[in-house]
Amino acid sequence: MIIIIIICAQVGFVGYFTLSSLTNMQNSIRSIEDHNIPSLLALKDMKSSVQSVAESTNEYVVISDQSTKTDELDEIMSGKMDYSEALETYRSLSILYFPTKIEFVDVIQEKTNILFSTSDMIIKSNKTMTDTDFQIIHTDLSRKENDALKAIQNALENEQNELRKVKEDLIKTQDGIWNMNLIMVITIISFTTTSGVFFSKYVIEKLDDLMLQVEKLKRS
Questions:
Q1: Residue 89 belongs to what domain range?
Q2: Helix residue ranges per DSSP H, the chain
Q3: Are 179 and 17 in contact (CB under 8 A)?
Q4: pTM given for the model
Q5: Residue range 33-65, pLDDT digits in tens
Q6: Residue 14 has pLDDT above 60, yes or no
Q7: How far lies 32's CA from each of 41, 43, 94, 135, in Å?
Q8: CA–CA distance from 92 to each of 67, 85, 97 (Å)?
Q9: 214 in a domain, yes or no?
Q10: Residue 76 class from Cβ within 10 Å (0-12 exposed, 13-18 middle, 19+ buried)?
């Protein structure tokens, strides 16, 4: 009876540990699905949108065909809209899950606003560009594009590091569950075997005592 109680207690403890660990794993997976992955996608959308705006601005400057210029303007407007949607998604996720990440949002917005303002100034100038003018504008636009992309990349690396840490924690939790269950099985087998040996020894000793008493009774 005592053996059964001890085994049940061990199973109960391991069961509680396993359930608690599985709950933590489920929360981590939900965090990845609800926050990390959408944040990474939003940041990548911002990156491609910024590159699109810069590229179309450069194209707008060098081309002369009005129809093509209109197409590039459409690309710029589309890039800005896609960027704004992605930024708001990332901002909302940051506020909801990790408010400290707002600093990444602020820096991205600051650097990207500078780039977009420069793009607007170039388009509104409507002047004929010499090779020297274009080189100056291209260099300035590229520098501001790189500043915006660097801000986005910093946020991306932060998200990737966080995702890597969550994955590592999941692996550790999974290993912990496996090890705990393995220890439980080994412990139960060892305890049961040892208990069986001692119990058998106890029974044999009792039988020997009984046999001795029977012999004594026969002699009397």
A1: 2-207
A2: 2-31, 37-62, 66-97, 102-125, 131-219
A3: no
A4: 0.67
A5: 557 888 999 999 999 999 999 999 988 888 878
A6: no
A7: 12, 15, 13, 44
A8: 38, 11, 9
A9: no
A10: buried
Residue 156 sits in a domain whose CATH number is 1.20.120.1730
Q: Which of 54, 191, 184, 75 is nearest to 119 (CA)?
A: 54
Number of domains in the chain: 1
**Cα separation of 49 and 83, whole Å?**
5
Dist. CA 108–CA 102, nearest whole Å = 10
Residue 192 token pair: 């049961």
Within a domain: residue 216? no
Are 108 and 45 contacting, i.e. CB atoms less than 8 angstroms apart? no
142 or 197: which leads in pLDDT: 142
Range 150-177 average pLDDT? 81
Which tokens go with 105? 């949002």
CB atoms within 10 A of CB 128: 7
- The Cα-based distances of 177 to 6, 21, 51, 188 in angstroms read 21, 7, 46, 16
| Backbone Cα Rg of the chain | 35
